[in-house]
Amino acid sequence: MGKLTVKEILKAAGGTLLSGNEETEISGIETDSRKAGAGGLFVPVIGERVDGHRFIRQALEAGAAASFTSEEIASDLIKENQNKALIHVDNTVRALQAVGSFCRSRLSIPIVGVTGSVGKTTAREMIACALAGGFRKVFKTAGNHNSQVGVPITLFEIQPDDEIAVLELGMSEPGEMERIASIARVDMAAVTNIGIAHIGQLGSQENICREKLNIQEGMREDGLLFLNGDDPILKTQKARGGRRTVYYGTGENCQYRAVGIRTEEGFPVFTARCPDGTETQVRLSVMGSHNILNGILSIAVACENGVKPSDAAKALESFSGYKGRQQIFETGMITVIDDSYNASPVSMKGGLEVLMKIHPGRRKIAVLADMKELGEKEVLYHRQVGTYIGEHFGRHMADQMFLLGDLAAEIGKGAVETAPESERAIHLFGDKEELENALRSALQPGDCVLFKGSNSMGLGEMASRFAEGGRKQTE
């Protein structure tokens, strides 16, 4: 977008100007007062524990040119900031969403939306990478800005010289995807899978599927929906309103199909078979068989946007992972797999598969923490991960298991039930510091270590400390 004026923001949000000038230009939007920069709009969000209105003064002092408020502003704050635009709105988040919708209305480039229970960010990054094989400048969602707050800010950040955009759309509660999608109004949408993340809030996989498919809200009539044809739920779904559905995967029901799948030095290689019968070899620079689906999805999206399959495949080779998502670091002493950003049963198994396949013959250590938001069956889901480990025990999937948290302890129980001999390899911890100290004492040169758990369990910082000084394997 570049910039908006306060006048345009007032019109979009239906706000009232308490101070400042309508012609003031806004160059950024921020919800964290500590990051508020010169020329930015501060949006105070009322959270469960913190009310952002407490930090309006700090944001203005930090250089913000404007701020929303849904509360009454002290007269001294208004007097002190006559050159700053204080805008009163009924609801700050709804006002931000209105601004995001306004920004969307001014965009003419194609927008691809990505959602799914697990792997959204990796899919987003790989799609953007493949599109770069045919587009000079590809915009993509930054970080985890995939929420009701993040998506409007993302739309504001799209620049005039961007040629295509890939947006990640997330949801954790009923109705959230519909609200986000109605703002983003994507031209194409991809749903990667239907798992059990957030099942505690949504109740069932069927409900999760229904919510994810709401990514089509606001999509134009000739829009396109990409569905994972290998997913047992998605392969039975179709796009709404007569829009075209494209299935991708490994089965014969898929228009874009990965065939001839194999690994070379641990990395997936496959042939992408396109609807017109053309075939292109694809070599990935990220490990894990689940990334084959991300790879064929990326080829499909690129091709449907006019990129040659060979160009998309070549561009895709440059993708080597995203922070906290199966990034591999070689320190000279050990190999660290940082997959600490988040966790579900599917992604936990995917991380363990990578651990098993990397550096055959070396000792493998799995540092696993609780998986959150899995609802009433959370113990069962953790046990199932343990069963998976037990089924592969003795084949270097996890020669040692360092488990953090009460739920992670259930992983150990599942492993022992399946492979009793695995009990000697299990170490339980309720404290991160104790786990880290024990891990450092246990490590031997050549070990491969996987860090995997829900983000709230805090394994990310630990993984970074162990990876410090190491280089990404694919660099």
Quick rundown:
The protein is built from 16 helices and 23 strands. The chain is an alpha/beta fold and 475 residues long.
Low-confidence stretches: none
Overall outline: globular
Largest sheet: 9 strands, mixed
| Spatial order of strands in the largest sheet | 9-10-8-11-12-13-14-15-16
Using the coordinates shown, work out and report the CATH topology of the largest domain: UDP-N-acetylmuramoyl-L-alanine:D-glutamate ligase
Head-to-tail CA distance between termini: 33 Å
Q: At the fourth CATH level, what is the homologous superfamily of the largest domain?
A: Mur-like, catalytic domain
Helix content: 25-40%
Give me the Rg, rounded.
24 Å
Structural class: alpha/beta
State the CATH class of the largest domain: Alpha Beta
- For the record, the CATH architecture of the largest domain stands as 3-Layer(aba) Sandwich
Percentage of residues in DSSP E strands? 15-25%
Number of strands: 23
Please write out the topology:
Elements: E1 4-5, H1 6-13, E2 16-19, E3 25-26, E4 28-30, E5 40-42, H2 56-61, E6 66-69, H3 75-80, E7 85-88, H4 92-105, E8 111-115, H5 120-131, E9 138-140, H6 150-157, E10 164-168, H7 176-184, E11 188-191, H8 199-202, H9 205-212, E12 224-228, E13 244-249, E14 256-264, E15 267-273, E16 279-283, H10 290-304, H11 309-316, E17 327-330, E18 335-339, H12 345-357, E19 364-369, H13 378-392, E20 400-404, H14 406-418, E21 426-429, H15 432-442, E22 448-452, H16 459-467, E23 471-472
Parallel strand pairs: 4-5, 5-6, 6-7, 8-10, 8-11, 9-10, 11-12, 12-13, 13-14, 18-22, 19-20, 19-22, 20-21
Antiparallel strand pairs: 1-3, 2-7, 14-15, 15-16, 17-18, 17-23
